[in-house]
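Good morning N.,

You mentioned wanting to compare the apo and holo forms, so I went ahead and generated the holo version with NDP. This is what I fed in:
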Amino acid sequence: MTKRLALVTGGEGGIGTEICRQLGQQGRKVVTTCIDPDGQDMAAWAEALRAEGIDADYVRCDVGNYDACEAMAAEVQEKFGTVEVLVNAAGITRDSFLHKMSADQWHTLIDINLNGAFNVTRQFINDMREQRFGRIVNISSVNGQTGQFGQTNYSASKAGLHGFSMALAKEGAPKGVTANTVSPGYIKTSMTAAIPDAVRESIVAQIPAGDMGLPEDVARAVCFLTADEGGYVTGINLPVNGGLFCSF
Ligand code: NDP
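and this is what came out, ligand included:
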């Protein structure tokens, strides 16, 4: 496989780290964005992956800020070269029932989870089209397919990623650029560790596979969709949910 530069937003997170690891194991150079102000956590993150033989680096960028994304893209190009694989994994939750949700909870989340995918992808799409190769994966969620109590903002942002990816798939196909979503169900990371025990037990009881998934399960789906040979698979949503929600 040709060594291609992969940019993973939110690459420091539970799922993002495993995506970086597996893309790196496939021989890719991986760069992640971080919002860590002093970079200490990220330096340790990159060091740990490098110790495993992964060619990992990071750049600072708040994906919710368009200008910051533009500057980040210039930095990535200058330091590491042209991005050929982009995984938009940065995401947050700001849970609240809609009748109690503040405008800030809505807008902050949409700015990062949905606008962030635009802000970042917009910086790299022209190069991908020009080089006639690009693999874009947007990390959505089962809750963007089914909706979830207390998550009108999160569900809307993740559902929006499906529309974004499908439209982008049509635009990119003639130029060798694919765009897909991966929709994890419940995955064991700090995001789900914040779920109260009683709620977690009731969620697990509904998962046919009998447990929450692992970041590795999500990363494998990303690797499938970003493979050099994956050019004909575009505009799809690949669920990774242990049978929690089945659709076609
Ligand atoms: P984490 O909280 O572990 O990771 C999220 C990452 O996003 C972190 O690295 C975080 O950085 C980064 N991030 C947050 N805000 C910004 C920002 N403004 N700019 C740049 N980066 C930012 O969560 P997960 O690994 O669990 O989730 C990864 C993705 O998978 C998310 O999009 C999430 O919605 C999705 N997902 C997760 C599921 C799960 O069960 N865990 C289920 C379905 C979808 P920092 O650590 O510095 O804050």
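The beta strands are 5-9, 29-34, 56-60, 83-88, 134-139, 177-184, 237-240.

Happy to go through it together on a call whenever suits you.

Best,
F.
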